[in-house]
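Example 5.3 — Phosphate transport system permease protein
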Amino acid sequence: MEPNPLFTRSKEIRQDNWGRWLCYISVSILLLLVVTIIYFISSKGIQTFTKNHVSVWSFLTTADWNTGTLSGGKTDLGALALMTTSFVTTMLAAALATPLAFVIGIYVVALQPKFGQKFVQPIIELLLGIPSVVYGFIGLTVLVPIIRQHFGGTGFGILAGALILALMILPTITSLAIESMRSVDPSYQKFAYTLGCTRWQVIYHVILRISAKKLVVAVIYGVARAFGEALAVQMVIGNTVQMATSLVSPTATLTSKLTTDIGNTIDGTLPNNALWTLALILLLISLAFNLIVKGFTKGDRAA
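Solution (predicted structure tokens):
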């Protein structure tokens, strides 16, 4: 007796169920990975305070990075210099890269769209694919000697790090800025031209005004990438934990300190736990960047 087709699942329904379960499993694995990473870094990062009894306030507000034990059994361990250098280097890089990225975006979208799409945008995409070690090597062999010759010092420091980071995040901000400007409805531009606006008035009052939120998001993504960059910065920053007195003073960032020392410490010791605390700080800052982006894009999604 053949089964009644009304009570049997068709091939399409079975494929739909398989696809649904595959999506559920993939999302579950992704969530599990995120939770595992956050738990692992958090559990290791707080041991500096729970196991080694370092003061949280002292760790965040002092600049001396001394992982040894002082007289009286106390430790003098602070990450302020590392955090300050990271923020200063990142913000300086963003200040250098953002105006140039916006100008390139305007050129590609509003001034020469055909030439920009055919020649300029492929170059931007090519820069996106260059490994960070290549940028770091260029900075070490070309940029550092130039800074040493013209600005004094060793050539290593915030200035070299900021210039390398600006070059690295320029393609990221530019690509996102181009997509943001292209998302503006062309009819708005046509209406502005019919009202007698010039090209630059259309660019400023229509394209830039409408895409302003998305452009801010592009900058935030660029800043987030710059803040988490390690290898290229490590090669040009100097890797000396101290509060920089000038842009050409050797110093260190959170990421450069991590990559330099993580292989030279023993698991469970104070030097190792302190590095995991730096990793936890980087994780929290990355989450903060994501929350800021969500705050900027929340209104657009609701609309």
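Remark. The chain has a mean pLDDT of 86.
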